[in-house]
Each structure stands twice: as C-alpha cells, then as structure tokens.
What we know:
Number of domains of chain C: 3
Largest sheet of chain C: 6 strands, mixed
Shape of chain A: elongated
CATH topology of chain A: MetI-like fold
Helix content of chain C: 25-40%
CATH topology of the largest domain in chain C: Rossmann fold
Oligomer: heterotrimer
Radius of gyration of chain C: 22 Å
Amino acid sequence: xxxxxxxxxxxxxxxxxxxxxxxxxxxxxxxxxxxxxxxxxxxxxxxxxxxxxxxxxxxxxxxxxxxxxxxxxxxxxxxxxxxxxxxxxxxxxxxxxxxxxxxxxxxxxxxxxxxxxxxxxxxxxxxxxxxxxxxxxxxxxxxxxxxxxxxxxxxxxxxxxxxxxxxxxxxxxxxxxxxxxxxxxxxxxxxxxxxxxxxxxxxxxxxxxxxxxxxxxxxxxxxxxxxxxx
Amino acid sequence: xxxxxxxxxxxxxxxxxxxxxxxxxxxxxxxxxxxxxxxxxxxxxxxxxxxxxxxxxxxxxxxxxxxxxxxxxxxxxxxxxxxxxxxxxxxxxxxxxxxxxxxxxxxxxxxxxxxxxxxxxxxxxxxxxxxxxxxxxxxxxxxxxxxxxxxxxxxxxxxxxxxxxxxxxxxxxxxxxxxxxxxxxxxxxxxxxxxxxxxxxxxxxxxxxxxxxxxxxxxxxxxxxxxxxxxxxxxxxxx
Amino acid sequence: xxxxxxxxxxxxxxxxxxxxxxxxxxxxxxxxxxxxxxxxxxxxxxxxxxxxxxxxxxxxxxxxxxxxxxxxxxxxxxxxxxxxxxxxxxxxxxxxxxxxxxxxxxxxxxxxxxxxxxxxxxxxxxxxxxxxxxxxxxxxxxxxxxxxxxxxxxxxxxxxxxxxxxxxxxxxxxxxxxxxxxxxxxxxxxxxxxxxxxxxxxxxxxxxxxxxxxxxxxxxxxxxxxxxxxxxxxxxxxxxxxxxxxxxxxxxxxxxxxxxxxxxxxxxxxxxxxxxxxxxxxxxxxxxxxxxxxxxxxxxxxxxxxxxxxxxxxxxxxxxxxxxxxxxxxxxxxxxx
Lengths: 230, 239, 337
C-alpha cells in the first residue's frame, strides 16, 4: 500500500522522465502498429475481396496469438541485434496477425447482396471494393487495429530488455527507480493502454458509416481481452 | 542493462567453442545440439511445469468462480473486474512486486501467472454456460432432470467448446508470460534469454526463442486436438 | 396401472388426466391466464387444447408438469393430485414435446432417447433396445441413426426423435406443445399421419396444444376450445363443428365448418346404396376417401353419384350427392350409422 502511495509521488516527482519514456513508448508502438497496418491490412482486404486464402488468413491469427512475445523479441535479438529496429520488427510480427485476420473476415463477410447489387449496377471490381466493401468492412478492420494496438502498447515494456526504450526502462530498473518506480511505470503503462483503447474506440465510432452505427457493443473478433499483459 | 536479479551470465565454453561460436554467428547448430541437454532441456521441462501448474490452478479458481457467477449474477461483475485488474498489470512488474512478499521463488511466479489466466478462463466458462441453447435446457427441465443433473449432463458438456477455447488461450498466454518469469530467476526458457542479454551470445537468443515458440505452437495444436476429441458433435453435419 | 393407491411413480400404460378448477394468475395482473379450468381426459385419448393467442392453452398444459406453478385448483393424474408427487418424479413420468424440439446437441440420438431411462437406472442393453424400438416406431432407421447427432437431421426428423425421447420410459402421459409448428406443411402432414399411426399402436394419453383448427380436427379425439383463459367448449370434433356453443366458436372453427365436418368422416362410415346397373359408368372412388373429397369429386365431374370401391377394387356400393349434403344440412343427421 505504501508502495502505491510512493508510486504516485514518484509519478509527480518525475514527470519529465515519465513523459520522455512515454513518448519513446508511443513512438515504438506507433511505428510497429503503422508498419503492421501497412503489411496486414492491404493483404487482408485483398484476400477477403477475392474470397481466397481463408485457411491462411484465419489461422494466421491463431498462430500469431500463440507466439510468446519475449521469444519473438529474443529471436530478433539473435538475428538482428539490439535496438529500436529489432524490437519494432518483433512487435510487427506480434501485431500483424490479428489485423490480417480481422481485415480478411471484415471484407469477406460483407453482405453479399450489397456486393451483388454493386456489380449489377456496373461497378468494376476496384470500385466495388472502394465504394462498397471497404466502408462496410471498416468497423471490423478497425476493431482488429484496436486490439493489436492495445496489445503492442502493453507488450512494448519488454522492449526495454532489448534496448528499445520506452516505459519498460523504468520497470526493469528497480535498482535505479525502486519498487515505487516499478509501480509507477506499471500505472503509466496501464493508463496508456486504456487511453489507446479509448482513442481507437472513438476512431472506430467515427469511421463506422452512419447507417451501420448500432447501439451497444462494437464488433470484435477476439474474445473480450482488454489489455494484454506482457 | 538488467537488474541485479539475473543470474550469473553463462558463456558456455566460449574459449573452446567452434569458430561459429567465437564469431557469435546468429545460430550455431553444433553448439545447440551439443549443449541442448545441459542448457535447454531442463529449461523446457521447467517451462512446462510453470505453465501446467498456473493453468491448472487458474482453471480451478476461474471455474469455481464461473459456477458461482452462473447462479448469482452480482458475482460476475465483481470477479470480472478483479480478474481484469490483475490482467492489466505488466508482467515484468507483477513478478518483481511479488518478490518482497513471497521471495525469489516459484511461488511468486505462479501467483502472477495464475492471476493472468483468470480473466479469460472465467469469461469463457461463464459465457459457455450462458450460451447453452434455451430449448435444450427447457427439455431437460421438463424431462425431470434435477438442477445438478442438468448442469452435469447438459450445460457443462455444451459449454465445453468455449471452456476449451479459454484453456487454449490461457495456455499459450501463460507460456508467453512464463518466459518473462525468468526475470526473477525461476528458470524456464526465459532463463537462457536473460543469460544471453548479459552475454550477447546470439545462438542462445535464437535457440531459446525458437524453443519457446515451438512449445507454444505444439501446446496450441494439442489442445485443438483435445477439443476435437472431446466435442465430436461439433463436427457432425447434415448428411 | 393406477397410482392413486400404490403411491408409486407413474409408468406404463396410459393415465387419465383431470383439471379441477385449475387457475393461474400471474402476480401483478388483473385477469387470470387460466381461469377455473375443469375438464377430464380419458386414458388413451388425444385431447387438443386450442384457442387464439393468450387463450391460456400453453399455460394450462405447462401446469400439468409443473413448469408453471398453479395458483389454485388442482390437476390429477389417475385421480392422484400432482401436488402430492415429487416434482422430479412427476416429470419423469410425463413425456414432453415442444415446438423448438430441444434435442441435446452433444448427445447421439441414442443418448437423447435414453436420457430418462438412464436416470431411472435402466441397464445399457435395455436402453439401447428401447431406443431401437422407438426409432422404428417413429419412422427412422435404427441401424444408421442411433449413433448420429441431432445436427445431422432435418427439422421433421428431429421432432420424430423428440417424440421418441418423450416416450422412452413408457410414460403414461404425453404433453405436446405445437410440436409440428416448425416444419413445412408437407412434412407436418406426414408427421401428423405418422403420429396418429403410432398412437394407434401405443395409445398413450396425449394433451396436444395447437392454434391450427385443421390440425385439431385431424388429431383430437376431443377438442377443448379456450378463450381468455376459460373453457368455451369441450367435445368431439364433429359435434363442435355441427353445434358450436356460441358465435365465438362458430367464428373460430371457420365459416366452412360444414365442409370441415365432411373431412372427419370417410365413405367407410356411411351406409352405401347398392351398386345398380348404371354403376359402371360412374366415376369411382376408394372407401377411405373423406366425404369432403368425395363431394369435391362429384362437383368437379358434374355427377350426382359415385361408385365406391373396396381396397381390392371391387365395387362396394354407391353414394349420392344428396346423402352427403344432407349430413351437414339443417336436419343435422348424425353421420355415424
């Protein structure tokens, strides 16, 4: 209990440090999410549009979810060495599968009647994709990005072990920052993860075409697992 | 880079190692196979033990909680919030924070690992029970099964797919988190990783990482198989 | 086998059922869902409960196996109040079939059918033999279907399994709540026919709820018409159609009730006139044809007389248009001779 109080004190005393580390953390997470998006979303959308590769697309997230995060970072350390790039690659590998599967399922399961109507009206495949399939698929695609983003933010502390920086630096350095630092770092990460979830939830809401906005839960593929501890 | 908790760095026979080792190439298979029994074998066993105990205990707790929550709605909220809170704590922190309480021991690691399994096991078990088709429940009632019989013979079997899915997710998550547990020195496949962080020996990084990944994938596959065996009706389709 | 004296759980044969001033009032409501229902169902009879939505027919039936508790009054089985029986014992002695079927997806057909017998402690062999016997009775294949799962069957087949399951422990009473409602009309017709055939072989006492008057006329020995929780008329199909108790019943059974009566009877039930010389020129019809179909044929062919054939094809006699029409006319001749 005392440690918790100390931790709050720590947060206030070290705002500069916390801020710097948070920025590092977000930079790393953001980069990883961005790269993962650039790889996974187009691929998933394309496969879903073609209604191909379902076995791959659906099972890749099962495999991805099973990958032990530290192990992936470790392999990265062995193959690519220490540093920002290596950790980012590892995080991309952890983030991409969920995004890929969500993007695939989102486009693949767009109401076939809407697609048929579009084709019937004379839209070419690319137009159908951009004007009909993508808008309808966006909510679920976004849900995948959201899940992956929260996962990355929560897993990034491990990056500190590999020289990636971020809030993990505080947590792994109990000798320097004391137990109150460890708790303070944890609180910061937890808040960051919730904030990420919140921001993406907001984005998801705005990205959902008005006609599709329903009262109640946003679409989610994964079981309701909020922040992944890493 | 790492706190003083990590063990003495193990630089295995560095001087006498092959050229591959001396140049610290990315993966020296000769070293790997030579040293497997000594360096990695026991770690795999430890890792499996850590995981099995955590998932086992976690399941007992979460399952009991789910049964209670199934009959008493208010309990669902409380336990879910409790389990979610535990899940939010970053693992590196959780392990460290246990040390002053239960020491640099397996117990500390297990408490943290068990805590992480609770949310998913609880949610899946409870949802599995709640999603049992209403008409099957009604038929069972009307046929004269007692509440206990309905639970044992109808509701739990039908909840099994969801429960198994939860166990599957909990297991791979625990395998992942157990690698981090080595931070407080309890062994497992994280140990060679943390050693390597000290020594910079690349083969150890790659080998330990690959073994952990392999372990996770094998466990996942085995559990999928187990689920298929236990739920033969889920695959049956209209002839 | 009566249970009134022995006090043993129900089993075997068919039981008589009686509602005695049975009433159900839901808390917070002014009107009763079921109000002082009193009627007696003889053993081995099929009694149909019918009425518009909200008439209380399902509520009444669900009070029999205590899925819904009675507010006041009583229900007796073979004279014994259901309140005196342990609820679990009571339910194990009553077969229950309902529209959504409710087969257990995780059990094989054999497992489903054998649920109650196993609860009663029957040995494995006996359960299997019984399941085989019942599957054949309901028109499925014991060799193939015992080890299949419910999801492998069509809706109609699933309901057949549901019926088999409800009879597995030889329960003397069966409750059926719109059991054939969820299948298409052709399958429903076949299910109805097959169930009547089954009932002829194994005459359990059946309470059958439906909202379909044609089904009621086809299935019921006697029909109980309910409205707003009250019993309006309880009689055989023919008499309800011939003499509806009031305007509500007359409306409910439909403006074509005269013709509906003709469905109840076949040419078998009439005394036919001898086949005269002109018989060979007349259109022919089998003796099992309903009077309604016979009438329809005469109108279509533009004749006033038909020759009736027995199953071998030999002429049994003739029937006149006037004979049929007079049956449902103002004179209200009784059909049965």
